[in-house]
Amino acid sequence: MSDSCTQIIADYAFRSLGYGERLLPRSDFTLCHEFTLIGSGLIWNVYFGTLALLFGFFFATGLALAKAAPSAALRRPAELFIFVFRGSPLFIQFFLAYELLVMLPKAGIDVFGITIETAWTTRAWAGALFVLFLNTSAYSAEIFYGALQSVPKGDIEAADAYGLTGWTKFRRVLWPTMLRLAWPSYTNEAIFLFHATTLVFFSGFPAFQQRGDALYYAKFFADKTFNPFIPYPITAFYFILVTLALIGLFGIVNRRLNRHLPGHHRPKLRIRPQIIR
Questions:
Q1: For residue 187, which of 63, 104, 241, 250 is within the disulfide window of CB 3.0 to 4.6 Å?
Q2: Computed over its alpha carbons, how large is the radius of gyration of the chain?
Q3: How many Å apart are CA 7 and CA 122, to the nearest integer?
Q4: Is the pTM of the predicted complex or chain greater than 0.70?
Q5: What burial class does residue 66 get, using C-beta atoms within 10 Å of its C-beta: 0-12 exposed, 13-18 middle, 19+ buried?
Q6: Does residue 13 fall inside a structural domain?
Q7: Separation between Cα atoms, residue 191 and residue 140, nearest integer Å
Q8: CA 44, chain centre distance (Å)
Q9: Residue 132 in contact with residue 196, Cβ under 8 Å?
Q10: How many domains is the chain partitioned into structurally?
Q11: pLDDT tens digit string along 87-119?
């Protein structure tokens, strides 16, 4: 690696987070510039995907249980939530959320005499993350609900025979079985969620001081050089690496969930990428 490329990495590796050079390069773009800045922007994609997936996992579990509940007071709101977020495009959800958040008073909202600032909600790190969290929760909840409905009756009867009830029954029988059944489909949802993070800065949420994600910088280079055949394949290369990492991590969890089964009976992860949300 040349000294100039080393300097470029030092200047732009964390630019998307606000560290390093304040201004983007204006001319004489090199492959090192493109790999470095697009890779820097990928930090935001990983941030959005990781946090939305983490918080969405637990919320989706609650939604799945609510949808399976006999009480209409729990079931109906869960069904409506899942229907709304699965039935509308994610791109439109970003636009509507941003416009809704902009309408909040930027000076803040008074609650019991305490002023709560709301200007930060229009920033992508908060507002867009919230949209991704709600969207993946809806899709994951439907996956978990289907798995919950597919739990073998024999497992439930065995739990009843052992006197397991309530939380103990759910924690030791229903939840592990649900995860085992849902995990291959949930892996596909996780992969698509990371791909969907590229919509953040192409929707209503603007980039702050030209600090965007991987696709934001790819578009910057494509516009400046009039050559989309270098920055976009670089972006695809980075996302392929992220996808491979996800497959590896989720594969480890899948083997852990099915460790009690003989090797030839353990379900394999089958990746079926979704073309459109």
A1: 250
A2: 22
A3: 34
A4: yes
A5: buried
A6: no
A7: 12
A8: 11
A9: yes
A10: 1
A11: 999 999 999 999 998 888 776 777 777 777 788
Band of the pLDDT at 202, cuts 50, 70, 90? confident
Among all chains, which residue has been given the structure tokens 């289907």? 146
Name residue 20's amino acid. Answer: G
Phi-psi region of 85 (alpha: psi -120 to 50; beta: other; left: phi over 0): alpha
| Overall residue count recorded for the chain in this entry | 277
Q: What is the phi/psi pair of residue 143, to 5°?
A: -65, -50
CA distances to 97, 107, 222, 240 from 103, in Å = 10, 11, 34, 38
Integer Cα distance of 142 and 125 in angstroms: 26
- Which two tokens mark 260? 């009690």
Helices then strands (H, E): number in the chain? 10, 2
Expressed as residue numbers, the domain containing 154 is 38-265
- 276 in a structural domain: no
- Give the pLDDT of residue 268: 62
CA 214, 216, 218, 221 torsion: positive or negative? Answer: negative
Amino acid at 5: C
With CA atoms as reference, report the closest residue to 42 among 224, 250, 200: 200
Q: Tokens 């200007």 correspond to what residue? A: 119
Q: Is residue 3 part of a domain?
A: no
pLDDT band at residue 139 using 50, 70 and 90 as cut-offs: very high
Structure-token pair, residue 41 = 């922007």
Q: Which residues contact 169 (CB under 8 A, 6 or more apart)?
A: 159, 160
Query: Using an 8 Å Cβ cutoff, are 127 and 205 in contact?
Result: yes
Tokens of 4: 């100039």
